[in-house]
Amino acid sequence: MKIFSRLLLRAFLGPFALTFLIVLFVLVMQFLWVYIDDLVGKGLEWYIIAEVLFYASASFVPLALPLAILLASIMTFGNLGEFYELTAIKSAGISLWRFTLPLTLFIALVSVGAFYFSNTLLPVSRLKFGSLLYDIQQKKPALSIKEGLFYTDIENYAIRIANKSDDNQQLEDVLIYDHTAGRGNTMVIVAKTGQMKQSADERYLTLKLFDGYSYEEMPAKDGNYYRRPHMRTSFQEQEIHFDLSAFTLKRSDEELFKDYYSMLNVQQLGTAIDSLETDFTKRNAELVDIVRNFYQFKNDSAFVSMEASALSSFASKPLLEQVPDNDRQEVLRDAINNVQGIKGYTSMRARELEGRRTMLNRHYLEVHRKFALAFACFVLFLIGAPLGAIIRRGGLGLPMLFCIVLFLIYHVISMTSEKLARDSLVNVHIAMWISSLVLLPIGLFLTVKANNDSRLFDAGSYLRWFKRLLPGTKVKTN
Q1: Residue in 172, 162, 160, 264 with CA at minimum distance from that of residue 210
Q2: Per-residue pLDDT averaged across 385-403, rounded?
Q3: E-strand spans in 35-153?
Q4: N- or C-end of the chain: fewer Cβ atoms within 10 A?
Q5: This prediction's pTM
Q6: Would you list the DSSP string of 335-390?
Q7: pLDDT tens-digit profile of 272-305?
């Protein structure tokens, strides 16, 4: 039996590692497709891009791991069934359950590792990935001054160059608008030629201009807007230094992002949930106390009837008609203003409480997500192993088809239930488990059928069964 266990683990580990890497690669490529505009054209070093991809890959592990387990289990047992190895094992008196037990224990260890990863390593990788991606998005594109176009990415300057050499250093017909004074286009520099050179650390740009003029419109004197002095200065050589610190990648403090719910472990999420629950209860109680100052709520029917009889004896006609005609319009206006004011206030506070409840639901969902991932790995293996034994097809053809269908069902149910839970339409404590609980009976059913050698996907067996229902139909038997 130890030989069978080693062979089974060896047959599973190869497809598992291969499918996991393939799925992870596809997800990373999808990430690049979405964020390609934020990464290209900013002069990032190769190790910065490698760091982004590494942290992005770690963030995609919870999505790639269940899919890899499902596909690898279908492929492994499909290959064993296709070459009648499962038939030989069963003929030796070994049941499918007993044969699968070592691999089941291995998947249980993978599930425990998945929980450890999602609770310990995943929050750290998300924190570093989120902060690094934010810094990249805030970084300006690399310095690239094109011919004939105004370049405005350098703060307080607009530069236009008619022509430049192939080495981007020799310039012709340079026009610069200097906005450092904060008074608009009051300073203009024109030069026939120039030289452009960056410092070794790329923090500064030095621009040497030759044979040119500078035009400056001076501030108005005596407050007369229409009378402004104008100064023109010619030069043979002028040197301008530009600060390029905005073009370098500035790393933000990760402490600014650490309180986000997806970057917390279970213990930290529990602390955050306690704080959010206390704050939500306090805000809700404040709203109730304020509303009670404007409305009276009577729940005792006996008290209401007594109060109504007292009022009827006190007033024989409506209360508004008892107000003098001169004051009636003012009373109505004040009443309408009060009602509109309390309505606007309660609507605003209701939206605030709804936002706080949504954030609280996100924290609850993140806690359950860490446990649901481990359970989903086991459930998908419980489906994939017997399904591969039943279809008896290896490779990436038919197993891939079944895998895509099952994973789409799992993913759609998971995303839908999560969205409903965020909006408080589904209990947050069961939302992350719904997809696994829906697929669990299917896995148990397939396990029983595979252990009994059921021809669940044999079209011929269904056809023979259908012919038996028709009178006068002969069924050919082998």
Answers
A1: 172
A2: 77
A3: 150-151
A4: C
A5: 0.71
A6: HHHHHHHHHHHHHHHHHHHHHHHHHHHHHHHHHHHHHHHHHHHHHHHHHHHHHHHH
A7: 899 888 888 888 888 877 777 766 555 555 545 5
